[in-house]
Specification:
This protein has 301 residues and is α/β, with parallel strands linked by helices. It has helices at residues 32-43, 57-69, 100-105, 126-137, 221-236, 246-256, 279-291; strands at residues 4-8, 47-52, 74-78, 115-119, 122-123, 145-152, 163-170, 176-188, 191-195, 201-204, 209-217, 260-265, 271-272. Strands 1, 2, 3, 4, 6, 7, 8, 9, 10, 11 and 12 form an eleven-stranded mixed sheet that branches. A two-stranded antiparallel ribbon has the order 5-13. The protein is globular.
């Protein structure tokens, strides 16, 4: 059974100032999403599922549908604020999405095989897709083992402002023991640092492994996610900005003994566009990879 690639592409890009998932950055106008799909298909994935919003559906399909659907199975699911469990409605004034757990749950009806979840606006590297494809192909669909591909935090930060990162902690066997979402992480001359809720800063070495939302799950994870999101709504469903994060779900499942996550390091380089100022760096990085022969100048020729 070939694994499925579930791509979270419903983000609004508030700090970037536009829809990053549709911004062409490759030499022939390729988006970062194009490179992820290209790497996944050549690594052995069999299907791609896009999580998008209804209001961007027409523009999204105009760019991607023909080039993808002619080559492999493609499905679309929609993340909307009102798509909540029975008995819950968005509070008045809320415009912020409910977070990555909610986004992944949108794929439950169409994803019946082990799957990899990624962001649409990140570049993960072909090595990471090859690693996770091998793991997913041997994964028990009814099991309780998850996968988190870890990147060094110093290689994931922006030169132009703070970012959110899920810091991974694992035992000697490589099993996740804790995953903490740090919402304000900055690059420093010596590595990195994150800001605590009281405003103080904690220094990091820069070598700490972090989750970049490159994760693998069996379909049996969906019921646990549903309950986790329901519990989140009971506690924070009336708030305007709280989000339910997949990294927190993984960490809490590990603590509760309901699932365990295998942390696997990757040699791949990650890059993305949190801020508009990051774009030039990304364009140059892709250009270099093309010049080195790692990608064709036109992906979908």
């Amino acid at each position: 059974m070939k694994p499925t690639l579930l791509i979270l592409a419903a983000g609004v890009g508030s700090r970037y100032g536009g829809l990053k998932q549709m911004d062409g950055m490759g030499p022939s106008g390729e988006t970062l999403l194009d490179y992820s799909v290209y790497d996944a298909i050549r690594a052995g994935f069999g299907k791609v599922v896009f999580v998008i919003r209804k209001d961007i559906e027409a523009d999204f399909k105009a760019i991607f549908h023909e080039r993808f659907s002619s080559r492999f199975p493609v499905e679309y699911v929609f993340q909307e604020l009102h798509k909540l469990p029975e008995g819950f409605t968005p509070p008045e004034g809320r415009t912020k999405p409910w977070g990555t757990v909610h986004a992944v749950l949108m794929g439950e009806e169409v994803v019946k095989e082990p799957f990899c979840m990624i962001n649409a606006d990140d570049f993960y590297g072909h090595e990471s897709f090859e690693i996770i494809a091998r793991e997913l192909e041997k994964m028990n669909p009814n099991g309780s083992e998850y996968i988190n591909i870890g990147y060094q935090i110093k290689n994931t930060l922006s030169e132009h402002g703070s970012v959110a990162r899920g810091v991974l902690e694992a035992d000697a066997q490589g099993n996740l023991t804790q995953l903490v979402e740090r919402t304000t992480v900055e690059k420093t001359p010596t590595g990195a640092r994150y800001q605590k809720e009281d405003g103080s800063w904690v220094e990091l070495t820069g070598n700490e492994p972090v989750s970049m939302n490159f994760m693998g799950f069996p379909p049996s994870a969906f019921p646990l996610m549903r309950q986790y999101f329901l519990d989140f709504l009971k506690e924070k469903g009336t708030e305007l900005k709280s989000e339910c994060y997949i990294p927190n779900f993984m960490g809490d499942m590990a603590k509760a003994g309901k699932a365990h996550t295998k942390v696997i390091s990757t040699p791949a380089k990650w890059f993305g566009v949190t801020y508009r100022e990051d774009r030039e760096m990304v364009v140059n990085a892709i250009k270099k990879l093309v010049e080195e022969g790692k990608y064709p100048a036109k992906l979908w020729a």
